[in-house]
Amino acid sequence: MVTLSLLSLSLLSLLGVRGEVASNFDNCKVSFFKNTPVSGLNIALPTPVEPNTQGLKNPAQCLSAYKAVSPAYICQRNSNQYYFATLYDRARRIPLYSAYEMDIKGVPNRPGEIVYYEPQLVHPGLTPNQMNIKGSKSEIKKYNQNNGCNESSTQYQQKYKLGWSQALDDNFGKYDRGHLNAAGHHGNRDAAEATMTHTNVAPQDGTMNKGPWNQYEKKLKDVLSVGCSKMYVVTGVVPSGTWVDQNQRVNVPSHYWNAYCCTDNNGKPLKSGGALGPNTAQDGVTEYNTSVTALETVLRGLLSVGNNFNIFNGC
Ligand SMILES: *[C@@H]1O[C@H](CO)[C@@H](O)[C@H](O)[C@H]1NC(C)=O
Ligand SMILES: *[C@@H]1O[C@H](CO)[C@@H](O)[C@H](O)[C@H]1NC(C)=O
């Protein structure tokens, strides 16, 4: 046992493997224009604290997301490759935004289902890769066994712990699981597949998701395939007082927003713009195709954030 963990420790340091839920986006800052994350978005709620710890053995070690900081900075990583960045609100169990480089040349190649979870939201020491439900549970099981977390306590059970740290497949009620980083914005199949994670989706009205938002995502691709060398995209949500369920596990955003910045091959900005739409079946007041500056002004009001809220570092 000792030999094994020593071996894996030295292997880990040899490979330079670091946790992907970190206190910043340093490992995936290339997903942002000029390597600069969105600034001034300090709206995440604190990580929920398990209310019932009576009789629990070893809670500090065994409870999911124990004293974890919210938001979580996720460098989305699949099969040891980074794909994009997500700012994750642990209390609302939704991403506040995902930032990515869009593949303007690729052919949309949407793989099937949203299957992945982020084991490091449960315990920081678990695998830094996205994992499906089976893999995530097996990570938690291993952790429980190694740390004396007896699964006869409900709070230590695999599904409970996973669901404490992030939204589960069956937590979306009548809503669609709306992508922030759009699968269709990637030509490379692996990059599209990496968007299929529960930390990249939020409850979205089905009419909006399949209607105007989908059209906007497609149009973005057509419009920008001309002249752009690189395309940086940030897609976010505006949290609301509405939740999918009574227990207030998963928040229903009031709006979805998007901003893009396209550059020439020297990184010089060529075009930029954005969109904002209410998360409802009606899109009466939706602004599709607005300037980034106008979008930021409206969002400062909706999100109650200050003038230091900026999506791009000057695009
Ligand atoms: C876990 O708890 C149950 C019930 O208290 C007990 O029967 C079992 O032996 C415990 N398992 C371990 C591995 O300690
Ligand atoms: C936004 O509007 C401008 C000016 O009308 C147009 O050139 C551009 O293609 C539009 N962009 C999108 C994404 O619709």
UniProtKB/TrEMBL annotation:
Entry annotated with the keyword Signal: yes
Domain of life (superkingdom): Eukaryota
Record's signal peptide: 1-19
Keywords from the named record: Signal
Protein known as: Endonuclease domain-containing 1 protein
Matches recorded under Pfam families: Endonuclease_NS
Gene Ontology terms for molecular function: hydrolase activity; metal ion binding; nucleic acid binding
Record-annotated ENPP1-3/EXOG-like endonuclease/phosphodiesterase domain positions: 81-311
Keyword Transcription appears in the UniProt entry: no
SUPFAM superfamilies: His-Me finger endonucleases
InterPro entries linked to this entry: DNA/RNA_non-sp_Endonuclease_sf, Endo_G_ENPP1-like_dom, ENDOD1, ENPP1-3/EXOG-like_nuc-like, His-Me_finger_sf
Taxonomic source organism: Coregonus suidteri
Boundaries of every DNA/RNA non-specific endonuclease/pyrophosphatase/phosphodiesterase domain copy: 80-305
UniProt cross-references to PANTHER family, sorted A to Z: ENDONUCLEASE DOMAIN CONTAINING 1, ENDONUCLEASE DOMAIN-CONTAINING 1 PROTEIN ENDOD1
